Amino acid sequence: MKQQENVTLNRALGLPAALALVIGTIIGGGVFVRQAAVINDAGSAKAAILAWIAGGILTLAAGLTIAEVASQIPSTGGLYAYMEEMYNELWGFLSGWVQIIVYGPAMIAALGSFLAILTSAFFHTNPIWNLPIALGSIILVGIINIFPNKYGASFALITTACKLVPVAALIIFGLFYGHADALGQSIKGIHSTTGGFGVAMLATLFAFDGWILIANLGGEVKNPRKVLPQAISFGILAVLAIYVLVAYGVLKSIGAEKVHELGTAAIPYIANHDFGNIGGKIICIGIIISIIGCMNGKIMTFPRIMYAMAERKQLPFSKQLAYLNPKTRTPIFSIFVVIFIAAVMICLGSADRLSELCIFTIYCFYVMAFVGVFLLRKRNPKMKREFSVPLFPFTPIVAILGSLFVLISEVMSDPIGVFISLAIVALGIPVFYYQVYKRK
Q: Which residues span the membrane (predicted)?
């Protein structure tokens, strides 16, 4: 296998494609299945809406902070590249290691599994087909991303447009035809076990996750110093508005008590009850497409981290993982490896737990990246920036405090999981030093 020296990543993604990838990667299943969890923890409809707003504001602060970093380090690999540039090679490697070995594949696997479960629930298929559907979905989306990146970007645009159908339906029906008291209801009988406003906000943060992944495509975005900040900022703002309106529409459609009673089945209930059999199926198909679009964004972005690490010869089999197909200019072997790991996780049924375990370590690296904004400004005080975070230093401080809140919440709620997630990070240290030794 010989890599042609002049083969590089195809810098073909403009603002519409980048924006679609941000929105498409964030809006997956979270907004459709987290409604009950947020309301249950918040205890009232009004508190639930405020939790969605607070989660969105924290995510926006994080996105605006990273947007400034992205404008100065517009490299393939996103968070991995930022950590290496702002700190050192080891910290960059460890942030990439967690994302390519566990977090990325686990997120892809979880989406595939959730897609299969929803397909079974919506269309009453035999559960025996869940595993083939989950595996088939990630393989098909992976094949799309083997072709030139314009196809993955086009698929992102199409799925983002399609996923707006159920979103718009839930919002419009709730606003104009819903009769429940959207903001005046509280949940009876669960206050002894409710997690409170903080935990409710934490649940919304998971639904906002994925906003940073567009940064992994820094080497394939046109004018990345300008486009990446715009895509991250406008994308998060759009998702914030969508999430708050969906939450309000759901509450106005059936009320907080019914959402609590139905749990994750609340959205399917609204689809079938309010839109009829055919309309309900259209809404359900839109939700499935939404998950596929989210999956596409992750399959398009996570292998780019593996490719960037392999280019620096930081991984075993770096020559193969850094290979770009001369015709498609995509890292085909990195895509294959990420899909393979995700497929194994689906078969083992461990995707959800593994993705939860890595949330802690991902937010550790987020905090370091947010602090990095101050480091970059100190190192390069006279550097002209294409994008500067608004309300500096207040915005980065909000992002840091919000992420610390997530970390503390994880330590208190799942100390064993935190230990395991740190152990996964530690496993990367001997790999890093072995690769450093091989390069000498």
A: 12-37, 49-70, 90-123, 129-148, 155-177, 197-219, 231-251, 278-297, 332-351, 357-376, 388-409, 415-434
**pTM for the complete prediction?**
0.81
Cβ density class 203-233: b for 16+ within 10 Å, e for less:
bbbbbbbbbbbbbbbbbbbeebbebbbbbbb
Secondary structure (3-state) at 221: strand
Extents of the domains making up the chain: 15-439
DSSP-assigned letter for residue 350: -
Element (H, E) at 347: helix 332-348
Domain 15-439, CATH: 1.20.1740.10
* Cis status, amide bond into 396, omega within 30 of 0: no
Q: Which H or E run includes 381? A: none
Instruction: Name the residue among 434, 438, 9 with its Cα closest to residue 217.
Output: 9
Which residues are CB-contacts of 428 (< 8 A; sequence separation ≥ 6)? 93, 94, 97, 98, 101
pLDDT value of residue 218: 64
Burial class (CB in 10 A: 0-12, 13-18, 19+), 31: buried
CA distance 165 to 285: 9
Look at the chain and count its residues: 440
pLDDT, tens only, 194-214:
557 777 777 787 788 777 777
Task: Output the CA torsion sign for 48, 290, 215, 134.
Answer: positive
